[in-house]
Write a structure and sequence with these properties.
Length: 502
């Protein structure tokens, strides 16, 4: 199993592949399905099997191939209605209803799918006649669960499938057989017969939209990207988001330090933000993390770079208005396309879809800076902390390998005293900026310090930090702090505070 974007040294050539017509699925399969083979697409009702099958046949139509949809579970009119909801026409696809009104007659019940020792049943003969008459290159058989019920015997059922597989192999057809997983648990007969197996799954969350996942269970003679891949079923069909794999995805770049736009902040970081690294901005709510990320991004935009900001916690309008009030107007860069703002709803957006947005920002929009604000909301989109850390590791490695300057905002619980985070991402971060509230002369002020930097020799000082209509202001290093380790820092020194003369 490999990264689907890397060239494969083994497996069928591109000329022997059939595109599935499903965005993202061909990448997972390393180029598509091997032609003239039989594949199983399984999933519970509602996961999108029929939609995937229709996309497969419509892709064949676009490539000038004949397509046949053999249905036992839905009528042709129902299939056309499903296609119409996606804006598709099935006029160029042959629809064949295997069990019609005559097949429902009790007197003909014993003749349905009743194989003998030598020949297939009458119903299967009808399929053969259709295929011989049409000569389709792509066939969908929907569904095996109906055939299983009609066969009424596991041995007959298996022989029926094997006979169909042998017949299809002599007609140079690429076949998708759909199954709704109503067989007994642990039944692997279909898996052993099929050349490849694609499994679709959906899970209803306690809040928000259901999450759908796809997994390639097996694929003979092909290297593919394993594991679960998120996908969405929307108007227009299935769209799969291949799991982001950082290994093997490199882009040549030169690591250089770039200014944050605030000289004092550059000094704290030991020279600025370094391309190909990520910086974690952590602290309690309202301390200035998002505004600092905005200032760093604006400096990049002023240098002519492109940037993408992924906003979880607040609306884009509020974000822009906040910047204007602090002397940082981002509107010109939104208008000229240098800045892309993405409003993310963690209840509706799956982690795989979010990773795909970042991948597109890097590979298509060619951004040089990415900001994720905040990781707290991103955590809520994940099924657990373990998976968040694994995916964040892949995501940050991918961004670092492409020379992207990444800003991560992480809110911490509490204002003073014992301040905690939802998750510890410090070991994944190349640099960490810590923001804290502190008390001095009866006032609540804010401080900033660099606690980690893998690339530069950073300051080991604490500086006062504040937001004004002129943007960020950072004072001289402060001495004589007390109670820093206890979580209740208080300043007893004589260095003049910012704004003392206001």
């Amino acid at each position: 199993m490999i990264d689907p974007l890397q060239p494969s040294a083994a497996g069928p050539s591109a000329s022997n592949r059939s595109s599935t017509g499903v965005p993202g699925l061909d990448e997972i399969l390393g180029g598509g399905l091997t032609t003239h083979r039989l594949y199983l697409v399984e999933g519970t009702p509602g996961t999108g099997k029929t939609t995937l099958a229709l996309q497969f046949l419509l892709e064949g139509v676009r490539q000038g191939e004949e397509g046949l949809y053999v249905t036992l579970s839905e009528t042709p009119n129902e299939l056309r209605a499903v296609a119409a909801t996606h804006g598709w026409s099935l006029d160029k696809i042959h629809l064949f209803e295997l069990v019609n009104d005559a097949g429902l007659d009790p007197d003909s019940e014993q003749s349905i799918l009743h194989p003998s020792e030598i020949e297939l049943g009458e119903t299967t003969k009808a399929v053969i006649r259709q295929i011989d008459a049409l000569g389709p290159s792509r066939i969908v058989f929907d569904s095996l669960s109906e055939m299983r019920l009609l066969a009424q015997d596991p041995l007959r059922y298996r022989r029926q499938i094997l006979a169909l597989k042998h017949f299809f192999s002599t007609r140079n057809c690429t076949v998708l057989m759909l199954d709704d997983k109503t067989s007994e648990p642990g039944d692997q007969q279909l898996h052993s017969i099929a050349h490849g197996v694609i499994s679709l799954d959906q899970k209803a969350e306690e809040f928000g939209a259901e999450r759908r996942k796809l997994r390639v269970v097996k694929m003979r003679g092909m290297r593919f990207s394993g594991g679960f891949h998120d996908f969405v079923l929307e108007t227009g069909g299935l769209r799969v988001f291949p799991r982001l794999v950082a290994a093997g995805r490199h882009r040549e770049f030169t690591a250089v330090s770039r200014s944050t736009g605030v000289p004092e902040l550059d000094q704290i970081l030991g020279g600025g933000l370094v391309s190909g690294t990520n910086t974690l901005l952590m602290g309690p709510s309202g301390v200035g993390k998002t505004t600092t990320a905005m200032r760093c991004m604006l400096a990049a935009l002023e240098r002519g770079e492109r940037a993408a900001y992924f906003l979880f916690d607040e609306g884009v309008g509020t974000f822009i208005a906040r910047g204007i009030a602090l002397g940082m107007d981002l509107r010109p860069y939104l208008e000229n396309g240098k800045l892309k703002m993405h409003q993310i709803d963690p209840a509706e957006k799956s982690p795989g879809e979010f990773a795909a947005l970042i991948h597109d920002a890097v590979s298509v929009e060619r951004v040089e800076m990415v900001a994720i604000d905040s990781l707290n909301a991103y955590l809520q989109a994940m099924p657990g902390e373990k998976f968040l850390l694994i995916q964040m590791h892949e995501l940050l490695t991918y961004l670092n390998q492409h020379g992207i300057t990444t800003l991560l905002v992480l809110g911490q619980h509490g204002l003073v005293g014992d301040i905690r985070s939802d998750v510890d991402l410090s070991y994944l971060s190349d640099s960490i900026l810590a923001f804290r509230f502190f008390e001095a002369k009866g006032k609540i002020l804010t401080a900033i310090s660099a606690v980690k930097n893998r690339t530069n020799d950073h300051e080991h000082t604490i500086r006062e930090f504040r937001l004004t209509s002129r943007g960020l202001e950072i004072g001289d290093p402060l001495q004589n702090f007390e109670g820093i380790l206890s979580g209740l820092p208080a300043y007893r020194g004589t260095t003049e505070m910012l704004g003392s003369s206001d």
